[in-house]
Amino acid sequence: MSIIPVGNSMKKLRYIAAILLLFALASCKKAVNPFVHDDVQITSMIMLSTGAVRTSVEATIDQEAGTIVFVVPRSQKDNFDLTKVKLTATVFFDAHISPQLGDRFWDVTRDDEGNPKITLTVTSVQTGTSKQYQVWGYISSK
Fold this sequence. Notes:
By secondary structure, this protein is of the alpha+beta class. It has a domain at 44-139: Immunoglobulin-like, CATH 2.60.40.4120. Helices cover 13% and strands 30% of the residues.
């Protein structure tokens, strides 16, 4: 008795192998990356004074409107020059802010028409999704 199939047995074996290969290929799915993040929100932002007395103010962020507003309490007005502050922000690990906040100074006042001077764009590195924020600050009357 022969171990190697011959004739019709060989054709049947090839046919079965082809069917098994088709089932194997059909059952393959494209891998889904469970770690894809496209959240492009600034979750918190802080304005740091650059004067002799170092202090900070946390922003109020309206995610729907895309606005970030710093309200400096009147009691701290002497500590802030709103034309020369530093900004820090918190975003998710795979997003970046443009322009970069870095070590530069920012002017958070509004222009002559009352429009914010700063527009920040947060972009997801993985998906390219982006969101813009208008940033400004003022000294509270209270």
